[in-house]
Amino acid sequence: MMVIGEAVVVNSLQNFCLALEPLLRRVVSEEVENNLIKYSRSFTKSPPLRIQGLEQSSGLQLIFGKKLMLPIFTGSKILDVDSGPLQVVLVDTRGEQLVSTCLPHPLKIEIVVLDGDFPADDRNTWTSEEFNNKIVKERTGKRPLLAGDCLTVALRDGFAPIGDIEFTDNSSWIRSRKFRIGARVVPGSYQGVRIREAMTEAFVVKDHRGELYKKHHPPMLEDEVWRLEKIGKDGAFHKKLSAAGVNNVQDFLKMSTVEPQKLRRILGPGMSEKMWEVTMKHARTCELGNKHYVFRQPNCTITLNPICQIVNAIINGNTYSTRELSSMSRGYVENLVRQAYGHWYSLEEVVDQYPASHHQGSSIKSLQQQSGYSADFYNEGGNNTHIRQSTSAYHHHHQGAVVDPNIRYSMSESSSDGELTPKKFY
Question: Which InterPro entries match (predicted)?
């Protein structure tokens, strides 16, 4: 009976296994198929081996192509130092130099605002978490800090131009008083190894109302005189100059040429020698343009540049360059210049079609290179005050006279008749 029972059990197990086999095969087949599908999808999402190796090196980084143009004001377009739009570039940092590179697919880049204190100690490494934690958001009740339609851009072929963006709030309310602009890959849009974020230098964002009072570099002749350094709009110096008829930068430079001691007295002791030097240094960068001014008398005609420096003269039918004028009476020539200065707005205006240079700074540099002289000279006047002046280089041919850029004449209020002593650059 036991043998019969065991045979029945074995037969039952065999029948059960035969019945279970199709089910097991189906389950195993489904699992294998699912795993193959997952593996296939993962493989198709992986970058090519060459790019994969590049990303695994963690050498990819975003950078801004150029520094920012400063200062930055709220409501004003943010530009680079060359007045162009900002640009984000993808580079490989593994070598000794940054090398621009690109991926075979576009990257979504987001422009953000960072705290100016980040990263600590100006270190050049940080984690994504540290970067994200230093993103600055707008103040409660305010608009987003950055405004514009280019806060998310596509990086293709290794670079992404940033269009019109601007700040809506100043930076005075955060502890560092400064912002940075950052760029990161939009979270979740890229599956490779991390690409390090970009950030600009730290900078102050000023309220747009301050733009109305900012200085111009370089100043223009027609700029109001308060555009010069150390002269504040509606401040004491501005009021003193306005009361004396010195309203713009050209007025300031003309007086500094012809009546430097008077100009110094107008500003008074409140302007220290150091402040004076700063103001004059800024004024000397002014672009003079290509206009000349002609003063005519019965027996002479003199030509001056826009800041009342003599260019040439025709006296009794003879044409004199500035060098040749050194043989003339000092008092006579100075008197002519003073008369021209006093009748400035009735002078004949002419345009030089072939100016050698319009910018004092570049002219001075050129003269230094050609002659080896320093471009500054001194007018000595009352109280032993030394007042620096500058000159522009006009290799100008006017009515046959050639301007000698190496000579200008000292104009002082206490001059007397005698031989005119030219002041060379030294």
Answer: Calmod_bind_C (IPR046829), Calmod_bind_M (IPR046830), Calmodulin_bind_N (IPR046831), CBP60 (IPR012416)
